[in-house]
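Just curious: can you write a single protein's sequence together with how it folds?
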Amino acid sequence: MEQIGESRISLEGFKPLTIVMEVLGATLIILVAVWCANYRGGFSWRSNPMLEFNWHPLLMIIGFVFLYANGMLIYRTQRNARKRRLKLIHGGIMMFVVVLVVIALVAVFDSHNLMTPEPIPNMYSLHSWVGLTSVILFCCQWFAGFLSFLYPGLQAPLRVSYMPIHVYFGVAGFIGVIASCLLGLNEKAIFSLQKDYSKLVGEAVLVNIIGLLLVLFGGVSVYLVTQERYKRVPQPEDESLFTGRNQ
């Protein structure tokens, strides 16, 4: 237990829950890779649009789920590091997420547009609407965060006022990502397995397990990032970052 002014920071349960989150995330990535490789035919690029699609779920899980969650939690998992370093790591992780998401989007649009004998329509499903909304929100979040906290940086009072908004929409966007992944997973299973889905064949069971792990991973991640008692303890150098004064 650490005391800061009148508030108390308790880290009880934080480490085991973080370990659980990381194990769930790693398991998710492995199971999605196994699903795409063993049941969906593996990976390719534009030479085989059907296999190019498989990059979409894998990269989205790695970037938009696992790395997104770790990026949100970096201030809590690396609580003793200097704030300036954490800001750069946070921004860097989120920028890498953007790169992976762009590649994943290219893969899914290519797989639709290049499909033979005729292309598959784009942007008609609820999954695509929720997913694209999440992508746009995430990119706006990154850009606003970069301008507010990195370069050029808002004045201290504006940064303090914007911080709760940044945190709220970061968490809201992550929940939207989990919802989009669940919708996409179910949509792919229904279209690919059709009547076999109701028979709970091996692939159907695997897809359902991936969905449950997504819910668990998302739930643990949101819990860790929203608990006030797990907040990072302010360091002396944090004040200089807000005021612009050297210590």
